[in-house]
């Protein structure tokens, strides 16, 4: 790829400023466990969250939203239908959307839905290595929302999935891998405490949707989202060493983080 | 109106003491994003929360509850039916109930339900200016849960809506406006951080239901709820300047707030 | 009973270390109000939470989970069917499961479901005195999730229920009573702040499922869960005196608590 780490830092800074200035309206169709945390993460960052996930409203809302998250963590029937309605409308309206195929592989209902959504041109797909491998049908899935495979194990599957779907694929782990099939970026920010609170990964999907709003290059916007999010986790981990207080400090850090923090801390490869 | 600000302060103090002494049982049929925060806000204040929102139970519970909230933030079909069941029972049993028509206007399902509930004699209606305008059919609604209109823009619509429905109408914003169609009170407490956490408005609807329990005058009880809630936000904002820690401090402040805080800080007009 | 308090302390310490080392996968089919807090409590403790509560997945997941919680706080139809599916699979696979019959007695839908689940051989039943009395059909139920009866009032009903069902029965209150019908243990740790946050009891049910994973003696594992949980509450209450900050401190304490804390603080009778 022709982009240098310096360019990515600069573009991440610009993207953060764009989110703050635009307060993009992000529709989240997400799981019941993390709705509150997801909305608070978006608010702290400066975006405008809306969880609109019922049939008859999910579609109309996806036309006015500036970004959309489809997270499959607790896909009750109403939400499954709403997700399809929203994606159809998002594609018609040009709203970028993120697919987070939580825990697919072993669980049949969400796996079938994820495979169907995969064919509906997601803008971005976010998952851990197990989930990306399962979505690429290159692996057997995991035991739930934990990663049981390393990011590197999903590199080839992620690149192939990006080429097949046209989506940017983001593989979450201690190192994050983001690829559009041609360009691949590795990021090494973050803190393990992010895995000790529920929704640490799920809210990142919503943040990716916020950064995708108005973006020209979704690889760059996804890199910017991951970089901002994981550097905020580092800021929080400097102030809190256990999960309860870390969650509070992390929301504060999403509010506090500036382009200067990005410049000082971003680690790209 | 004949009530003076001094009277309202005194009555707010009395109302807060009544909630603390009575621990009213408040049924909340509310959106999935804010159930946890709403229950914790009620508990912190001294009320007893119960989210009972399924068909076959919502009605029986509304007969024993001392206050009821109907919030339309994520109105899945089961919850829509449960809301109607609960309202019918509440009206038969004399349980006061609060309608919060979240984000109505542009979204068809909740708008239709809100217009139906409007005719079922809500005790109190709480919304931002956009929502109150939409419920009064004087506006075209908003982009979601944000206010896109100022409180003053909804004054006439609120008064008309109060006269038409018999409900107390509370319009939330930097200044809060509360009217029963004859008397109108403006309150100027609060902090902008309340808009940076999800559920900041939604939980207020539940607190209004708690203050309505056993009240003789719902205008006064609603003023007391708003005053207590927004002064608690001020206490919290003195201790926390970012949204994560503000949410924690706000729950603490709902527990801590006393009639003395009301006396020292309440700003009525 | 032949077990001494000293033995129980030692076994609680061993059980805590087993949870930390094994990170048991705990499936929680629980109410919408407390899903986030429950997942965070399990993560803080060192377990691996998964809320898998839809038809078609709840059963398959219960076969791979190491513990299962069925909490009846907001039993929508999909979740009722998923609960039965999960319990059937858990029984076939030998997965221990906890029944938390929230607010049964007055509310017909959950009461009918609880009575049906009672016959499906729960491993552990957790409730306050009112709920245990209602499940034993010895009482008329309560006004919601508050205990309106003391733990002692449910002693005979709990012992009879244990003998009838084969389950360990845990009655929550200022003193906790745990019985398998032959042996009965009283625990006197905890803090009243645990009743001022929502999910304080519900998350305990999930923690019981985590401690049941791989246990040889479910009375002991349940005692260990309650002891660990209530001592963590004591640690938190030393650092936070109001509910918002207590919730944060409690999650931190579940992460921090060690066998040494158990030894120093456990109060059995």
Automatic annotation (TrEMBL), chains A, B, C:
Pathway membership, UniProt: Cofactor biosynthesis; thiamine diphosphate biosynthesis; 4-methyl-5-(2-phosphoethyl)-thiazole from 5-(2-hydroxyethyl)-4-methylthiazole: step 1/1
Catalysis: reaction(s): 5-(2-hydroxyethyl)-4-methylthiazole + ATP = 4-methyl-5-(2-phosphooxyethyl)-thiazole + ADP + H(+)
Top EC class, one word: transferase
Gene3D superfamilies: 3.40.1190.20
InterPro entries reported for this sequence: Hyethyz_kinase, Ribokinase-like
Cofactor dependency: Mg(2+)
Protein keywords: ATP-binding, Kinase, Magnesium, Metal-binding, Nucleotide-binding, Thiamine biosynthesis, Transferase
Annotated GO MF terms: ATP binding; hydroxyethylthiazole kinase activity; magnesium ion binding
Binding sites annotated in the UniProt record for substrate: 51, 199
Biological process (GO), any one: thiamine diphosphate biosynthetic process
One Pfam family matching this protein: HK
Residues that hold ATP according to the record: 126, 172
Function recorded in the entry: Catalyzes the phosphorylation of the hydroxyl group of 4-methyl-5-beta-hydroxyethylthiazole (THZ).
Family: Belongs to the Thz kinase family.
Entry protein name: Hydroxyethylthiazole kinase
Organism: Mycetocola tolaasinivorans
Phylogenetic classification of the source organism: Bacteria, Bacillati, Actinomycetota, Actinomycetes, Micrococcales
Gene this chain is encoded by: thiM
